[in-house]
């Protein structure tokens, strides 16, 4: 769509960028270059079990753009533009390949990383090749379908395009699990839960950040955990930053925790060191 009206992709995604990047270089060109020049990176954030052992449950791959002049650019600054410019399929393809290669690499190095989660945009599911691409990529890296979790948002489930449903069903049928990201922030969340085979709910970090200050947030979290439990879905609490948030979530039986308290997203080669430290922290807290 944005492609047809031409000028849209010549907008810039921040004032900084506007100043520094050459005026004639569109975001589209810059992003294509970023892929070609290896300026994109995945950082990985651990997800740990909420039962006190802090066992590594998996990692979430989060995209970063390491720009030579601007430094690290967060995905919120360029993913929406990539979606508008028709570049998101290429980006997601890169993320998928990179994350799968990295998981295989960690395992060859003897690190036991149970699975990797990655984020996909609603628009990605309109690509009729998506599910086949997922299957090909897993095969290429010798991974099993349950090594991969694909995080989607409610907007994906609400997209009326029949290709979207076809992809979701094909991905589920091959055994790749779907996770519903930012759960609780969309609308009519509950009415859509039964439409799709969702494996996991990611409780949005806005609820977690209000644990200490809001009884309503605590009640909503407890309710989401019950919903997950009764529907047989895993629940991940996102954005866990403090010990008191962790304690509340543990008391309520939240199975999986993710947040700065355990680790910020980090480059792949730091995971080994983090795992050693995490083992010590878990031993210390017992
Ligand atoms: P998300 O998938 O909900 O990811 C969680 C975000 O919260 C990440 O921001 C993460 O760095 C941040 N975070 C993690 N722990 C904490 C914490 O304890 N406190 C706080 N305040 N924040 C925490 P990030 O990496 O900037 O990503 C933002 C969003 O960009 C993601 O939200 C996701 O929607 C999107 N995104 C990231 N990578 C990709 C990608 O490869 N493809 C697509 N389509 N979207 C992506
Ligand atoms: Mg996510
Ligand atoms: Mg494709
Ligand atoms: Mg989220």
Question: Could you explain the architecture of this structure?
Answer:
- The chain has helices spanning 15-20, 27-36, 75-84, 88-108, 130-140, 154-158, 162-173, 189-192, 205-209, 215-231, 243-251, 271-285, and strands at residues 40-49, 56-67, 71-73, 116-119, 148-152, 177-183, 200-203, 234-237, 256-257, 266-267.
- The chain is α/β, with parallel strands linked by helices and 286 residues long.
- Strands 1-2-4-5-6-7-8-9 form an eight-stranded mixed beta barrel.
- The chain is globular, with a radius of gyration of 19 Å.
- The chain starts with 14 loop residues before the first helix and ends with a helix.
- The structure holds ligand C2E and magnesium ion (3 copies).
- The site of one magnesium ion has 5 residues, from strand 6.
- The site of one magnesium ion (MG) has 5 residues, from helix 4.
What's the SSE blueprint?
Elements: H1 15-20, H2 27-36, E1 40-49, E2 56-67, E3 71-73, H3 75-84, H4 88-108, E4 116-119, H5 130-140, E5 148-152, H6 154-158, H7 162-173, E6 177-183, H8 189-192, E7 200-203, H9 205-209, H10 215-231, E8 234-237, H11 243-251, E9 256-257, E10 266-267, H12 271-285
Parallel strand pairs: 2-4, 4-5, 5-6, 6-7, 7-8, 8-9
Antiparallel strand pairs: 1-2, 1-9, 1-10, 2-3
Bound molecules: ligand C2E and magnesium ion (MG) (3 copies).
């Amino acid at each position: 769509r944005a492609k047809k009206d031409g000028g849209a992709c010549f907008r810039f995604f921040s004032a900084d960028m506007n100043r520094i990047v050459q005026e004639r270089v569109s975001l589209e060109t810059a992003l294509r270059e970023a892929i070609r020049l290896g300026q994109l990176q995945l950082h990985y954030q651990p997800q740990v079990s909420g039962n006190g052992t802090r066992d590594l449950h998996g990692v979430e791959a989060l995209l970063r753009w390491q720009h030579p002049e601007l430094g690290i650019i967060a995905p919120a600054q360029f993913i929406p533009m990539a979606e508008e410019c028709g570049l998101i399929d290429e980006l997601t393809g890169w993320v998928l390949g990179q994350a799968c290669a990295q998981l295989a690499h960690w395992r060859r190095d003897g690190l036991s990383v149970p699975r990797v989660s990655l984020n996909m945009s609603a628009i990605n599911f309109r690509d009729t090749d998506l599910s086949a691409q997922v299957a090909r990529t897993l095969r290429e890296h010798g991974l099993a379908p349950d090594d991969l979790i694909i995080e989607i948002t409610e907007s994906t489930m609400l997209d009326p395009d029949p290709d979207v449903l076809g992809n979701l069903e094909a991905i589920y049928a091959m055994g790749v699990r779907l996770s519903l990201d930012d759960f609780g922030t969309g609308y009519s969340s509950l009415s859509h839960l039964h439409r799709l085979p969702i494996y996991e709910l990611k409780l949005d970090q806005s609820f977690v950040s209000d644990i200490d200050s809001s009884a309503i947030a605590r009640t909503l979290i407890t309710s989401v955990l019950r919903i997950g439990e009764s529907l047989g879905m895993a629940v991940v609490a996102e954005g866990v930053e403090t010990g008191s948030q962790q304690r509340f979530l543990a008391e309520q039986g939240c199975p999986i925790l993710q947040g700065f308290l355990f680790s910020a997203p980090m480059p792949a080669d730091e995971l080994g060191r983090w795992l050693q430290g995490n083992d010590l922290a878990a031993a210390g807290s017992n």
